[in-house]
Amino acid sequence: MSAYKRVVQLGFNAYSSSTVNRVGHRQISQLVKSNGKRAFLVDTLALVRSLEAQGVPSKQAEAITSAITEVLNDSLENVSQSFVSKAEMQKSEMLQEANLSKFKSEVKSSQEHHFSMLQRETEKLRGDIEKMRSELRYEIDKVTAGQRLDLNLERGMQKLPT
């Protein structure tokens, strides 16, 4: 296993040095395939030749290069999927702002509706309280008038000759 790690490390070091030595000619480039996925290209020939120059047999160098390229493409694809474009981020922000604005509007409308209902209920309760006060006054007046009548009758009966 450590030999494999060393070969892979040699392969990356060899590839890195070839990209440094020939900047612009042997860089990883990105293309978009017809299926919409990204393909990251590696100068496999340079990598194979570098491994062969370090004593790795041709078949193994090709297999290592193939494995490295596959892992690199998968890794870069995974990384690219975790990013969003600035335009997508701005679109998402605008959508969130629109949703938040709509929510605020709905909350405000709901509050106004409930406040209006509370005002109507308050007015109704005030009317009911006023009606109850009036009825109580009427009852109190009746009782008071009855007591006066009883008092006057008592006084009147006391004045009557026996």
TrEMBL record:
Coiled-coil intervals, chain numbering: none
GO cellular component entries: membrane; mitochondrion
InterPro entries given in the database record: CCDC90-like (IPR024461)
Compartment list: Membrane; Mitochondrion
Main location: membrane
Top-level division of the source organism's lineage: Eukaryota
Keywords on record: Coiled coil, Membrane, Mitochondrion, Transmembrane, Transmembrane helix
Protein name: Uncharacterized protein
